[in-house]
Structure prediction request, 129 residues.
Amino acid sequence: MRYLSLDWIDALSDAVARSDDMRTVAAEHSIGVTQVVDGTPEGAVTYHLVVADGAARFGAGPAEPEDVRFVQDWDTAVGVATGHINAQEAFIKGRIRLYGDQQKLITSQAVFRALDAVFSEVRDRTEYA
Prediction:
């Protein structure tokens, strides 16, 4: 499946729903994250992660509620997803723009660690071209 396609989003949605680690962090954290990637082979793609009240969901479209929004281009998204670009360096250089509640993002790092494990499940089946 192609990175950021609806098939990819659906695969991640299923993996997030099955993840015990995501449910655990969702019991302790609450955050809505929207990711916007411009210039993909399918046009602009928007997807979200929402964790709250012991549940985690991943899907197409913006988060509701949205606490944080990331915006980046296709090359940056692919580079970060494949490990060719360091995400922190991309932030510093302005390749990833962040909008919203930065403090909530910082206090929700456990959510992103759990999500990274979910991404690892899907990464081997993903095409990044």
